[in-house]
Amino acid sequence: MTVALFASISIFVLSLLVGFEVISKVPATLHTPLMSAANAIHGIVLVGALLIALSANSFVGYLILFVATAFASANVVGGYVVTNRMLAMFRARPVPQKQGDNA
Amino acid sequence: MSGFELVVAVIYLGAAVCFVLGLRFMNSPVTARRGNAISAGGMTAAVLATVVLLIHSGTVSGAAWLVLVAGTAAGGLAGLYLAQTAPMTAMPQLVSLFNAVGGGGAALVGLFHFGAAGEPVATYVAVAVVLDVIIGSVTFSGSLIAAGKLQGLIPGKPITFPGGQLVNLALIAVVVGSGGVLIAGVHSVLLLILLLLASLGFGVTMVLPIGGADMPVVISLLNAFTGTAVAMAGFVIGNSVLMIAGALVGASGAILTKLMADAMNRSIGAIMIGGFGTGDSAAPVEAAGGQVRVLSADDAAIQLAYASKVIIVPGYGLAVAQAQYEVHELASLLEERGCEVSYAIHPVAGRMPGHMNVLLAEAKVPYSQLREMEEINPEFSRTDVALVVGANDVTNPAARRSGTPVSGMPILDVDQARSVIVIKRSMGHGYAGIDNELYTDPKTGMYFGDAKKAVLGLVAAVKTLVG
Questions:
Q1: Mean pLDDT, to the nearest integer, of B364-388?
Q2: Domain count, chain A
Q3: ipTM exceeding cut-off 0.90 for this assembly
Q4: Residue of B154, B193, B446, B458 with fewest CB within 10 Å of its CB?
Q5: Domain B297-466 coded CATH 3.40.30.10
């Protein structure tokens, strides 16, 4: 096992832990937007899809490049727009009615 | 590492930080939008850095640029269109669709790099390619089936066929066999394609037998799968931002899946095997004793107009009929008369945790009135009228007994209220496929109709009553 591979595995494991920590604090109200936000983040696969262009030079290569970039960019754009649409509904909350009551 | 590579690597790291911060800001409704914007900013930076990297490399052919731009534009526009036009009730299937394309994209990245290598790859790369292709393909086909079920394109009920288990076993054998040979060092693109096809097939046979009620849990699980597939793609191409973002999503999806399954008192294992409302468990639950009492709008309006405490129980029927605005109007009307109104939100009301909150927030219902199950259950006994709008299984007292398909599922204690009004289209069953004993309770009145029209009728009746 190379040092680089071990470093990659370490990054992967620590990222999993960060994911657990960051997410376990989210209130139930935001679970659907959260799922959608996480959904948008895995659109990062677009970076991987774009990098296919570095070595694509055949018809099959171009075909895979096209489908992969189309899939991934649909994921990215759709994911963020939908999340934003959901969250927009949480705006402009009226001021809590019973302001004097919380002692 | 050259100076240029360093800059790209730093931008990737910055993007990863943005994703973590973005999720962190999702903790509170106040900062959630900012969180999404930060996350989107990180994504934009990572994509732009990648484009600059491609330009800088100078090895991308003109044809490749053309294909790349066409693919990105086509996908981006399709995603934008769907995201802007889909109704809020269709969110779960939309998330499922984006899972499908994300997983499919990850599988293609693995497939391409394996094929382009042209020679045996290092063992860890082979492992990553195999996992990437398996998880990505299962997610792709499984998510499409899940979306089809929720959209009503495929029957929501569990679909089983004779010999289904045998087909499953055969597919698993092909996946394990071809995956094992590939990891052992055989460099065969054909074998990888066989692995991909078998995984696609397995995704279909995995989700088909699962009932519609469990789909949210399945979608959440597939969300985690996609994240993991993307992380594997990161290992294949040695890209840290894919590894980090993929792992983040994998972890978040796993937690969310657990939360949803817990809320329904179901184990993830039991869901994946299928069974909720499958043929054999739909044995008749004791004959519904007693008659159903049918109410008119006026009957229901009288009860509501003179109540001092009303709890509204919204369910999927409300979501489908888009009745959240009318319900809010009715609630405001009652509040003007000095009635205390709150909403009891079951953890899986609607189709996903938090889905109902999103819909009610759309109708500008104040947060303070949305109450979670544990918090509001003790209040039902002090409530004059519980108004159930299109909710079914989550109110069924049968869940407190053992031996029914809903046994053990946490429910809202609607039957403790002094009187109950149920708005429902028909006496049809919920996902669990059983009678709801609440409906035959003597203090329950059924007001049949589409949720939107029924609530509008109530609003009109209350207005004339109190003029």
A1: 89
A2: 1
A3: no
A4: B193
A5: no
